[in-house]
Amino acid sequence: MRDSDDADDIWENVKPTTKKNVFDEDVSVEALKKGIKNFNDEDDAEIIGIEGNFVHYAAPKSTSEAFPKVSMVPEKNTSSSSLSMSIEEVVNSGKKGPQDVEKMQQTIQILKKQLLTARRERWIKLPVEATLRRIMKGEAYSLEAYRALEDKLALLDQATALQDGNAITAAVLHLRHTVKKSIFSIELAKRPVAANHYLSYLRAHYEHAELVDTLVSLRRTEEASIVKYKVICNSGDVRNKVSMLKTCLRTHFEADSSMAGDAALVREHVDLLERQLPIEDSDARLEAEGRTKVFRDFPRRHSLLDMPLTTTLFYSCLYHHHELENSLSSPLSLKKRHEIPERQYIWTALSARAKAHAWADIENLLTAKSWFGGKKMKAPIGFDKVVEILNKFNAPTDILTKYLELVEDLDIRLSLSKKISNHKVTVETLVKLKDRAGVEDFAHKHGGTIEADYARRMLKDEAVRWK
């Protein structure tokens, strides 16, 4: 803030000058040199000379200096001649001769002619074709002379006929800035090509409010609703976002019966944000207190606010897995409200509990009741996926073996056991496949290990009927 205040003081202390612009008609090269000389004589105290990598500040030319003269480099690297050079001498030292002065004079004359032409033609209404030709060629042009509505529309229609995007956009913007909004909307609705160019311009320049209004006036309500929703989603504060989403839901989505499905999704988004707010406040407090074990073992990396549904479910399964369904932070409550499919729920819950190394919770998730009151293991995502998830979070070997043996397809079980290096299940699966060559190869590769001994015993087992 101090730097900003200093900058404001500097700008307040700047005094306006009445010096001529170098592009005025009556400015010559001599006047330019004279101006530079006067600047050097009057403001020498404010000049900073740059010489190579060394910077020097010229002290004020006062007999009673308020501050001592300061040099920002060692004196051995400075020269009295370079320090005493004025701006005029620097400018003159770069000149090569009269030819350069002549070129400068020619350039000034060209600029004068261009300036006079621009001033003269500013209020001259050229033919529409001539103006459009200038736009397409990238030349200077002015649309201020087209004041009548008929002329503006003719300009727009001709630009559309030529299919030049820059010309169409220029004509549309001229129309927008010079007629009433109601007239602009009516005429734009009659010209779909011009409307699309105008909408592209608004998107590129982030004029979202005008973009939504224009889409509504063009009766493209679905597109207007989506744009409004996207703009709100990109806003920062979650509490304000909830309020804005409710307004958007009421004024855009619910107002159009054809968007009932989209309205339901926006409603779910609002509910998710309203669920995240109290959970975030409570968990942030518990983490700060440091008395809850799960927050000490797994510190939160970022806020829960504005996270997707799947991320919120993972968060709830990790930090609030054992809470009752009537709690806002319960995974079961989240699953029920947002109708999360069973497969997605199991996958996310398994990942969260595996991260916490809660193997008993995983068994409970995969245990289902049978018809006669018994229990059996069931995995909606397949036990091969269960093993992959557990292996990702470094589950113990006995846990992996338990679920590997539940993979029904023997080829998949064999491939998976080799992938995670579970040798016991590999040998057992080879035996069940009656693959004697596979067992012999395993025993040969693994030498004197316990698994290799087990493989050799199975080779001697007469009960196995090999292929």
Structure, explained:
This protein is an all-alpha fold and 467 residues long. It is 63% helix and 3% strand. It has helices at residues 2-13, 29-42, 80-83, 87-93, 98-121, 128-137, 149-162, 165-178, 181-189, 192-204, 208-217, 221-233, 238-253, 260-289, 293-297, 309-319, 331-337, 342-355, 359-365, 383-392, 397-404, 410-419, 423-432, 436-445, 450-460, and strands at 48-51, 54-57, 367-369, 375-377. The protein has a two-stranded antiparallel ribbon with strand order 1-2. A two-stranded antiparallel ribbon has the order 3-4. A hairpin with a 5-residue loop joins strand 3 (367-369) and strand 4 (375-377). The protein is elongated. 19% of the residues are buried.
Order of helix and strand elements from N to C terminus: HHEEHHHHHHHHHHHHHHHHHEEHHHHHH
Query: Helix/strand/pairing class, anyone?
Result: mainly alpha
Q: How would the global form be characterised?
A: elongated
> In total, how many beta strands?
4
Residues in β-strands, percent: under 5%
Distance between the termini: 84 Å
Q: Using only CA atoms, what is the Rg?
A: 39 Å
Query: Tell me about the biggest sheet?
Result: 2 strands, antiparallel
- Poorly predicted residue ranges: 1-83
Mean pLDDT across all amino acids: 82
Strand order of the largest sheet: 1-2
- Name the helicity range: 55-70%
Question: How many H/I helical runs?
Answer: 25
